Amino acid sequence: MNAREQLSLVLDSPLIGKVKNNRTVMFWSFFSLSKELVTELPVYDDGRVRIEVTGTKHGVANIYDKDVLIYLVSLIQDKINRNEAVDRRLTFTINDFCRVVGRVPGGSAYARIESALLRLKGTMIYTNIETGGEGEDSAFSWIGDFKINYRRGKDGEKVMRSVTVELCEWLYRAVLRDGNMLTHPVSYFKLAPLERRLYEIARSGPQGGFRMNLEKLRVKVGSSGDLKEFKRRILALTKLRNPIPEYGIGLIDPRAQRTLEIKAPPPRGRTPLMAYQVYFFRTDRLANMKPSMHAPIVGDFPEDEGP
Question: What are the structural domains of the chain?
Answer without folding.
Answer: 3-186 (no CATH), 192-288 (1.10.10)
